[in-house]
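The material for today's practical consists of a large collection of protein records. A record pairs a protein's sequence with a compact description of its fold. Instead of coordinates, the fold is spelled out as a row of discrete tokens. We will come back to this pairing of sequence and fold again and again. Here is such a record, shown just as it appears in the course material.
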Amino acid sequence: MTLVLVVGVGEDSGKTTLAASIASRLRERGFRVSVSKPVGASEVWLRPWVLRESERMGYVVTGDSLILSKSVGLPEDRVEEVNPVAALLAPIDYVRLPPRSSEAEAASIIPFFRTALLRISECIEGSVRRLHLAGKEAFDRSPRLVAEALREVAEGLKPRPLTVNSDFISRVVAEAGVKAADTCLSKMESESEVVVVESNSDVAVPTPLSFSRASAVIVASPGSAAIYKGEKWKMAVSIQASIGSPWRTSVRDILGLVKPEGVVEVPLVSDPLEGIPGEYVDEIVDLLQQLKVLGREHSNNPLIER
């Protein structure tokens, strides 16, 4: 089994589009592929449709998890396995909370302060156990109409969310959330030849399992995808994270410690569902094969010799 980890230099660096494009291309080239985003979040002001999808499905859903699932043809009822720790982030009402206040500055920087709804799913013994939490401070700080929309969604979630403070959410994600995420990643591994894992934000490795199993790491940044050998990336992360947890180390901290094996330029993409054009993704996949990260390519086409 091969684990390809896709990380980014920050928010909106193109991680999801890149990860989905690679997974889709690998599937077209005959590999059994799964996808995973262990920890993810969606801004409800920028992606309000995730509220509708969460209400329809009965649990918190992020936009990235839907894009990744569609890239490999996973059924809708497995979206929460793709993204076991999922959060909906609420905007801050700066009219009621002055932008220069310490509370507003903290909320704008630390996502846990804006986590309105959080789901943690654990994949155990062929089933999925689910927990929902509601962040009290996020509801209090968000604009009134946004908070009302979030409350409507919360009423339809199964199970109903428990209201907690942001400190509790932070601790749960860092401890129980990370462990739960790895149970679902392990399940994806057992079903696949290749798992394409997307990290969150600018985190260098999202979970312990993704850290230990990464065969290759691809760094997404606007206009390019840089490919690194997994062992070299993990060594650099270990050095940088010697005073803390690897999954709290940023990508930018690592880039100066290790050189990529290759860099592929990628164009602007207007629709994430359409993905990056195939010729650019083929360059990435070919490089992974040159690095002996992937097994021998095969095809479902009987006319192609295996």
Notes: Residues 39-68+82-191 form one domain. The chain has two domains: 1-32+192-297, 39-68+82-191. The two ends are 19 Å apart (CA to CA). The longest helix spans residues 166-190.
